[in-house]
Amino acid sequence: MSSKEKIANWGNYPVLEADVIETSDLILLEKCIKSASSIIARGNGRSYGDASLNEFVYSTKKLNQIYSFDKEKGIFECGSGVTLAVVLERIVPEGFFLEVTPGTKFITVGGAVAADVHGKNHHQKGCFSQCLILLTLMTETGEVKTCSSTENKELFFQTIGGMGLTGIILKAQFRLQPISTSYISYVNYIAEDLGALMELFQKHKSTPYSVAWIDCLATGDKKGRGVFMSGKHIERDELPVKYRNNPLLYAPKFKFKVGFNFPSFILSSFTIKLFNRYFYAKNKVKKETGIVTLEKFFYPLDSIKNWNKIYGKNGFIQYQCVFPLSTSVSGLEEILDTVSSHSTPPFLAVLKLFGESNKEAPWSFPMEGYTLAMDFKMHEGIEELVHNLDRIVKKYNGRIYLAKDAMSSNEVIEVPNPRTEKFSSVQSKRLS
Question: What is the C-alpha separation between 218 and 201, in angstroms, rounded?
C-alpha cells in the first residue's frame, strides 16, 4: 500500500524520508487518510521548498485521467495528477491555451489549484483560480465533496492557495482560452535601473504578458537594472508565411540534459556577476522584437532536462515575495541592497507586476503590486539571509509565496491578519 522513500521537491532541499502512498482507489485512499496521523497530497514534486513534504504523502500521479474536453465551450476536466504538459498536448493543436500558466508545464493541475499559480499575465487574468470552475475534494473525514463558487463555496475558496491543507484534490474543471496560432510575438526593452523597469511595467499594462529579468548585483544608479519582456498571441493572418502550413504546431522537446550535479564553485559570486553582465550586455539594444513558440516564451527552462542539478548536490531554494504597490519601491530596493551584498547572491531573479488579488481566496498569494522571485543555491548563511529578507517583507506589509518557502520564519507566515484568522476559523468549524 505504501513505500518508504526519500523525497525532495525541485530544489532538492530539504530531503525527507516519507511513507508514500500511490493509488487511484478512493476507498483505499479514504482508509489511508483516516489511519494516518497527518497526510499531504503531492503531485509531480515541482514546487521548490518543503511544500507537500510530510511523514505520510499521498502521490496523485495515478489520478491522471482526462474526463472531458469541451471544444465548443473551451472547458477541460481532468484528475489532479495530470500535468499541464499533458493538458497542453491535448489543447494546443485544437486551438486552445491555458488562461493562466506558471513558468513550468511540469506541475500537476492539483498543484496549480493548491498553490493558486500565477503567470506573466496576472495583471490582466489573475491566478489559476480565476479560470477554475469546480474541484472535487476528499476531506480529512474521507468524505468526497464537489466544490465551486456556488457549492461548498467556503471550502472551495479555502482550498485555492491552501497548499493541500483542506484535503486531497481529486479532479478539477477549468476554462481555457482560444488561440489561432501557437506562436507569441514578443518585444524586449532594456531598463537601466529599477525605476525604469517599473515604468515599463506600467506603460505596457495593456499587453497580455510581461515579465522582467533583474540584475540583483547591480548597485548605485544601476540598482534594479534589467530586461523587460512583453508578449502577445499572434493571430493567424499575422504569421510569417513559413509558419502558416501548421499554425498550431506544438512539439516541445528537451534540447539539453544536465546529467550530474554541478560542482559548488560553478555558481559563485564571481560567476553569477559574470552571467548577469553577459545577459544584460547581450540584451543591450533598446528594443528587440521577434516571434517564438509558446514553449520558448512561457517555459524556457523546461527545454533543459534536470536543470535543477546546476545548483549542485546541496540543492537550492527560490525565495518569492510580493509587496503592495504603495511599498513596492522601498521594499524592492531594500531587498536588492540586502542580496547584492550577500556572499552568494541569487543566480536568477524575476520581477512581475500583479493585478488585483482574488479577494475571495484568502490564501492566494498575489496582491496588487510587484513580486520578486530569486534562486539561491544552498550554502552556509542562507538561512540568516532568508530571515533578513522575511523581516523586510514584514516591514513593508508584503507576503511570501508558500509554494516556494523552505525556511522562512513563522513571524512572516503567521502574521495575524484576516487571511490566517479566517482559515483558522474555517478549520475549527470543519474539525469540531
Answer: 20
